[in-house]
Amino acid sequence: TQLLEQSPQFLSIQEGENLTVYCNSSSVFSSLQWYRQEPGEGPVLLVTVVTGGEVKKLKRLTFQFGDARKDSSLHITAAQPGDTGLYLCAGPVNAGKSTFGDGTTLTVKP
Amino acid sequence: DAGVIQSPRHEVTEMGQEVTLRCKPISGHDYLFWYRQTMMRGLELLIYFNNNVPIDDSGMPEDRFSAKMPNASFSTLKIQPSEPRDSAVYFCASSPPVTFGPGTRLLVL
To answer: Which residue of A has its CA nearest to B51?
Structure first.
């Protein structure tokens, strides 16, 4: 079973601070996806990283895929209350199926 | 596009009752997934379909759970009989790209 471990489990910071959350596995993934889930809603796909070492930016969010394609990180610069949510990483197990990490719950206080 | 549509959004029922959750995927998506989310177990894949055919139902907890996809625009997840431990948020998603519905919050008393 390809497991994804996310850390930290919970993170509470003040508006304007920077933060990094992690997604790690002992298995190699062909790609990894990051989602954000807001309370009462379904997860929303933010980005897919495919190439080892790849860095993708989405406004204040920077996603990196590890060189060995076993891990990924999400860095948020100058966090805002609107960034509050559950951040999930997911990796494909086969053509249709993905496995999800347990997520990092981020709270950004104004 | 209205996105993935799920109904009902909330369901409260009593133990032993049948529960049917419904999903309309995004038109043109050929994969459909049913997930369950709880605090204890996170997001779990129950079953997924490709072109209306069930591909992997290994995540279905037990025989009380069943899912169907009679056509490309509709799927159901049925629990019969329901139990309190089935209380969770049930998500339907379709792909590609992966798009989740808003979920059905199920409470079994």
So the answer is: A96
